[in-house]
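dude i think i finally got it to work??
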Amino acid sequence: MRSRSSTAPSRCGRAPSPTPRREAAILDRLGGLYRDRAELDRAESAHRRAIGVLEGAGLGDSLDLGSALNKLAIVRRRHGDLDEAARLLERSIELSERFEEQPSANLATSLANLGGLYQTRGESEAAIATIRRSMDLFAQLLPADHPNFAVLWMNTATSYRALGRLGEAKRSAEQALAIDRKAFPLGHPGIADDLHGLGAIELRLGHLAAARAAFNEGLSIVEAALGPDNFRTTFHRASLGSVALAAGDAEAALSYLEPVVEQLAGSDDPRAARHSIGYLRQVVEAQRRLGALDRAGAALGRAETLVEAEGTDADRALLALEA
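look at this
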């Protein structure tokens, strides 16, 4: 009788190496995981390696590269490099438009990201036009009540608000809120974000009761979902201070704004200083209305210190006027 062991085939060979497209996709997925964990340097490294793999394999003009560029752009934007992020997105869009025969989620997403970036850079007209292109594409791919549309409507609302087109801004924000109320369960932080955007528009319109109601509802949601000390919670609390200041109640404004400023002073969030500058400017105004000029001066000094470290020339000009 023959031994079975002598005839068994060997299965100890190496697994085949992944193709360049597969390797790049794995690296991009890894970069996305790092990004979700806020490990931006690791995320950027993974996405750049993915791009290098594709370019090294002669895929420098491909849809795969366009997808990788879009992902790297998201990381560069979070790093604050808006110009490079814009260049990456524009290249991603160019590749999609050249090689895709049908509307795709990749192109729609790249356009949405570029529109949001234009909005951040204050290029409101370009933001609206680009977001509209994205919405037209998504309309061919998704139902009209998909949460993606809520994000796009709210970004459009923010751009309209920056242009002073408040009626259009309000309608866009209400559209976003209606979609998210249908898509998300009660108490979802996404609904709170919509409420904050709508409240800011109502405040600009002088509709103080409507603004207060939106900010109060948003605050109750984020406090329950994220806790009273979460960075996003500060937006709603401080915005209630803005409503009080607009209503002429300086003491109520300070009751909201001063605790937020102190909370942000201990925050390691990179956005904290920037937001604190705006809130301190309102504290200065409230203290002046109450005749507390020493306290107003102290708040102004804190704002000036933050501006020197974090602010822009526009901040310096505003503080100079207030001083």
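Residues 153 and 175 are 7 Å apart (CA to CA).
im so relieved honestly
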